[in-house]
């Protein structure tokens, strides 16, 4: 019987080609697939250049035999993670990919896929397999073998794991994604749409694994969409009689695509496609809300349905933001259609959230899930961006819930101030809403506490600071803190007093010490933070808005309030405001005159208040 010691000399560089092929054919008889020690001995002795030559064999009827022998040897080596991570395999990748593109037999194709599935477990090899031209071949092979369930499943697993392990930027796998998308967009009957479900899941997974481009929306040309999935998405969403599962898979893919493609280039080129996508997502949200019970112990549980709801919310949120930033400009007809859809969605969101708003004060342990926050986030964005009068009723219904969430900021899955604050800043620009925010929702006190939190200032979340300061500034400038005289409201504000309010109007017993609240916020607007902001040009604009808005609120609050502190407190307060004003006027010169005028009056008022 032939032994391994007899075969090893036949595999080395000094042996003839006839000896090498004979030795390779004999290996399975003397080396078992789990014999790690023997496999490593073979690996050390083998002439890998000859093995790669066998992989490149072509032009003869027997070439598939050589391919299969070489692949079987490599598959056996790849079972050992130590061997699979060596440079010898790296040198084989390009040849294996070429063999995958033009297999000499069905068995060679399957063996090539099986080998690559083992190799992609190594991040370095995974990058070589999915990047550039190699990734393009994978996309083409996937399309060519889509009708073979076995191969399609193997290729799906190969591509999915390869992209996950590779951890590469989106731009590196554009050829792969483009070929997959082109195949899925190719014409096919509506009766075959269900065949695409695994493919949509695959594309969605790939996009979620990838690192999106680092460039921001404002620095990329709007026509540089990296992978244009718009034709595929709109085609699927327009499919007659599409199943809920197909719709869900399509919207999940859309969500992943929008997250990975910050320019929204495809939607810019075809705004009508945006209308189809946003409308489908908005309708999907309403369908999900109809199946949920706002009075259940957990209104939106962490479940598959909640995940689907969150996906549709993300699509709507992303595309509404694109309109707000003027990245997308809708034609008049599409804009009118979206406004109607938006009105229906706001009404559905308001009706659902208003019920939770009523429950929350009575149930302090009511669980706030990620799904619920996704719904609240969309409602906030729509209310903040809408100019429609009919959303007023929704504002009164949702407002109390937004305040309760701010009060629970530290006990919810994700921070809520980044999306609650812009909404409150927008809606409290209306006097009636601002009054309700102060007297019925407890919103003024909640926002002051949030503005006082060190987190936003320390992290430089200037947008959050600006919006929080805008809310309390609205209250002060509009006089919403002043007790309302009987009969003061006119008929035009009755919509806010209708039965659409989530909570009954409370007795007007609110007492606000504007000056005391301003003094609590003042330490946050410190010279040290201004100095830090000055050292980073990227932060200058955001910091200017945040500090300026907060400082104007402090001055206005202390001007409209009554300073009740001791003389020493008054002196310290005036000095702190003056110090910040000096720094701010150097930071933003255009605001200097306004700030100095306000500060001058403030110092006078502080002195007068203490004297009294």
UniProtKB/TrEMBL annotation:
Enumerate the InterPro entries for this protein.
ARM-type_fold (IPR016024), Neurochondrin (IPR008709)
**One Pfam family matching this protein:** Neurochondrin
Superkingdom of origin = Eukaryota
Listed name of the protein: Neurochondrin
Q: What species is given as this protein's source?
A: Allomyces macrogynus (strain ATCC 38327)
């Amino acid at each position: 019987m032939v032994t391994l010691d007899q075969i090893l000399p036949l595999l080395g560089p000094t042996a003839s080609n006839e000896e090498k092929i004979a030795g390779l054919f004999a290996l399975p008889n003397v080396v078992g697939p789990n014999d790690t020690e023997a496999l490593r001995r073979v690996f050390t002795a083998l002439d890998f250049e000859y093995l790669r030559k066998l992989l490149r064999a072509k032009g003869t009827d027997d070439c598939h035999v050589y391919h299969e022998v070489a692949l079987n040897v490599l598959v056996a080596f790849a079972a050992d993670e130590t061997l699979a991570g060596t440079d010898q395999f790296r040198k084989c990748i390009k040849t294996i990919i070429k063999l995958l593109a033009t297999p000499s037999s069905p068995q060679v194709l399957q063996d090539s896929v099986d080998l690559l599935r083992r190799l992609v477990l190594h991040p370095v090899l995974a990058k070589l397999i999915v990047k550039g031209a190699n990734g393009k071949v994978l996309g083409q092979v996937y399309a060519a073998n889509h009708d073979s369930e076995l191969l399609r499943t193997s290729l799906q697993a190969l591509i999915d794991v390869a992209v996950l392990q590779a951890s590469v930027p989106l731009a590196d796998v554009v050829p792969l994604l483009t070929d997959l998308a082109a195949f899925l967009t190719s014409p096919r009957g509506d009766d075959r749409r269900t065949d695409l479900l695994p493919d949509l899941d695959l594309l969605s997974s790939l996009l979620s694994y990838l690192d999106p481009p680092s460039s921001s929306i404002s620095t990329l040309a709007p026509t540089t969409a990296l992978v244009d999935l718009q034709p595929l998405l709109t085609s699927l969403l327009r499919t007659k009689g599409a199943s809920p599962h197909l719709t869900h898979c399509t919207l999940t893919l859309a969500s992943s695509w929008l997250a990975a493609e910050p320019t929204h280039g495809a939607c810019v080129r075809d705004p009508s496609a945006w209308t189809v996508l946003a409308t489908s997502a908005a309708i999907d949200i309403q369908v999900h809300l109809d199946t949920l019970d706002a009075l259940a112990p957990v209104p939106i549980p962490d479940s598959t349905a909640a995940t689907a709801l969150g996906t549709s919310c993300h699509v709507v949120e992303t595309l509404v933001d694109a309109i707000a930033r003027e990245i997308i400009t809708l034609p008049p007809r599409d804009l009118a259609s979206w406004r109607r859809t938006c009105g229906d969605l706001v009404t559905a969101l308001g009706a659902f959230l208003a019920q939770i708003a009523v429950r929350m004060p009575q149930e302090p342990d009511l669980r706030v899930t990620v799904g619920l926050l996704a719904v609240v986030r969309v409602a906030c964005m729509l209310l903040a961006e809408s100019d429609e009068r009919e959303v007023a009723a929704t504002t009164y219904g949702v407002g109390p819930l937004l305040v309760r969430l701010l009060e629970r900021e530290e006990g919810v899955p994700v921070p809520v101030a980044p999306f609650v604050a812009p909404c409150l800043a927008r809606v409290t620009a209306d006097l009636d809403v601002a009054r309700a925010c102060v007297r019925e929702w407890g919103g003024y006190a909640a926002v002051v506490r949030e503005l006082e939190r060190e987190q936003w200032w320390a992290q430089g979340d200037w947008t959050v600071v600006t919006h929080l300061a805008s809310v309390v500034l609205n209250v002060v400038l509009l006089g919403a803190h002043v007790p309302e005289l009987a009969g003061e409201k006119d008929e035009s504000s009755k919509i806010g007093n209708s039965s659409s309010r989530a909570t009954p109007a409370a007795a007007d017993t609110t007492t606000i010490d504007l000056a005391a609240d301003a003094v609590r916020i003042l330490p946050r607007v410190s010279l040290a933070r201004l100095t830090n902001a000055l050292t980073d040009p990227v932060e200058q604009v955001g910091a200017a808005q945040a500090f300026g808005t907060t400082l104007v609120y402090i001055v206005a609050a202390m001007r409209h309030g009554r300073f009740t502190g001791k003389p020493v407190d008054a002196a310290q307060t005036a000095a702190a405001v003056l110090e910040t004003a000096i720094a701010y006027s150097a930071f933003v010169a255009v605001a200097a005159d306004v700030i100095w005028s306000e500060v001058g009056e403030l110092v006078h008022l502080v002195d007068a208040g203490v004297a009294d």
